[in-house]
Fold these 4 entries.
Entry 1:
Amino acid sequence: MVEAAALSSRLGLPVGLYPRGPAWGFYQFFLPDFLKKSFKLACRRWMVDRSFLLGSRCGGVAGGWLAGHLLTRGWTLNAARKVSLLICALAVVPVFTALI
């Protein structure tokens, strides 16, 4: 049993990082080229990387704060999480409609 716990602790990081690899590769390599070709926006790769990292951090903190705020106002855990997730998902809609 101890060996299984040690193995799961060593595999946690690689298994957690594996699914986000393709998305990070898209942001890092293809997005600067897309912005340059589509919008004539000449930006360096590190600028794009930092802006997406900053945006994801702010979104994660804001989503967590919103769920916690709803919990302190008496909402159930399930409802607070679902409503905060819905609000964060709806915040992305203007970005997609702007690109269409």
Entry 2:
Amino acid sequence: MIAELVPGAKVEAVSTKNGWTFCEYIPCEWGQGYIKTEYLTIDTELSGEYRNISNGRVRVRKEPHGKGKQCGWAQKGKTVTVSAVQQDKDGGLWGWTGKGWVDMRYFEREVRE
């Protein structure tokens, strides 16, 4: 371990491979290095209301990846509130709904006028 980051520390992800993300601008002496992808989240600018646009219901999972244990469903056409987004080791985005994680491939941001 080179450095320990505090929750909320911001880094810039450069690349992801095999579950690790190479980051720059890490607030430590070296300024760059690898961080396990599962520990990173994406800025909350992606938070908001999202509608399920899939052809059916979408699994809600306890962990932000496709093998995470299922803990519920997001029904077709329904809206969920996503408060945080995290990238899995394969580069997929997962949204935290407060009840679990959903695969963001099946959701579209709601635009309010």
Entry 3:
Amino acid sequence: MKTDTKDVKSTGINSNSPYQPGDWVVVRYDDLLYPGEVISLPSNGIEINAMEPTTCGSYKWPTRKDVHTYLLEDVVKKIEPPIPCGSRASQFTFKDSF
């Protein structure tokens, strides 16, 4: 789907994106929501390293990195970075609801 963004052809970076590398967002994929960190802003969308849900309602990094380029309209909203669950640094929660 076409987006209303200007592309900087010399760098291939989407200069009009409201997001920056390092931001945390929620992305919609197959009608499910996934939190993730913005990695880069290629001219064709937004590259995100997504987390996966756990069985207890928190999130974790998948064993194999889940980095994909999504369309900007698939980004639901910007969120705060994840918070580790107790002493288990392998599972995280989010202050924002989604």
Entry 4:
Amino acid sequence: MKILLIEDDEEKAAILAEFIKVEFPSIEIDLARSFGSGLRSLMKGAFVYRLLLLDMSMPIYDVTPTEPGGGKPESFAGSEILAQCVFVASPFRRSS
């Protein structure tokens, strides 16, 4: 199983990833650190990820030497990512 963790705080991301690895050793974790990289990862892996864990407030871009703040912080970035998700099929959906 593969999950996507979108979290800009390095310490929180490390704590979450370590917990998941200890409790669920077979799970693969991909990490994104901003709205932009999280959305790109999610769109590329739309049918790969089985779970999405995301921060609600994060920078627009990844922090880089040329963009040390990651762009303007987005208070509801997590909600924006969810709004752009389209779940075509779910293995948990009940048949009518």
